[in-house]
Amino acid sequence: MDELRALRTFLAVADERSFAAAARRLGATPAAATRQVAALEAALGVQLFVRTTRQVSLTAAGAAYAARVSPLVAGLADAAAELRDEADATVGRIRLNAPMSMGQRVLPEVLTAFQSRYPRLALSAVLTDEFVDILASDCDLAIRISAPPADKSTIWRKICLVDRIFVAGAGSRWAKLSTPEDLSAEDALGYASDGAEEVWTLAREGRRRSLRAGQRLSSNNGEMLAEMAAGGAGVALLPRFIVEKALRSGRLCQVLSGWAPPDIWLTLFYPPYDRLPPRVATFSNFFETYVTETHPLSAVLARTAG
Fold first, then answer.
1. CB 79 within 8 A of CB 93
2. Looking at the whole model, is its pTM more than 0.85?
3. Do 222 and 239 contact (CB within 8 A), yes or no?
4. Helix (H, G, I), strand (E, B) or coil at 44
5. CA neighbours closer than 13 Å in the CB half-sphere of residue 7
6. What gap in Å lies between CA 105 and CA 145, rounded to an integer?
7. What share of the chain is helix, strand, coil (3-state, %, to 5)?
8. Strands 302-305, 164-169: pairing kind
9. Using one digit for the tens of pLDDT, what is the confidence trace for 138-184?
């Protein structure tokens, strides 16, 4: 006897109060439904239904049994549905984490376009400029802009290199800055949290210069640093996509042209999956294509794809 099928048949008969109606609902024959319930009664040693020529009704034992097994069968059905959804690349919920500036300037169009293409996939985005421990957080993936990953406990996917430039207020005394020797550490705005210093390592034609930024002013938010630089507070090193609008308007200007900072990457980080859930893989593929080819900022977001 297929016990689960017999239980489903039993509950359908109890609900319909008819073997024929229950059989139609289940896509079976009345004879098959009758045999399954009879086999279940024999296995339990209890009569579950009173059968007359006019109706079928539960016995007291049958009613008590239905009350116990109905939520269990429903739970099994829900579990099976969840597993099917988990394996479906177009159904479910994706929880992602992203830096504040990336979230504000890039993600709205990405997520809107993604949801339009995959309407059965729900998206939940949390924005923060704090470091996110992907192992401890409740998210399916994290978007990061950072130095090349060194964390061995997670898996990651490099999307592209992120173009960074040095900027200063267009009317500030740093507007014509061309060499790092003319910039004091106190005037370098640092991207860091908890008041920490950021080390700038600049390279040009085989020459290297290092500078400890953030000694006087630092923040863990690129938008704030861009505004401080535009206001004349100093020089900031920021992704071009953050400052592009201010560069076009003339509020900021690029300085230290030709001096290259170390590479930073736009990367997707994941918990240590054995295999990416299909829905997460679907979003990852869409995200990479959109931010490097389709998004209006794609031309200034990535210096080099790969």
1. no
2. no
3. yes
4. helix
5. 17
6. 14
7. 40, 25, 30
8. unpaired
9. 899 999 988 887 766 678 899 988 999 999 999 999 999 999 999 99
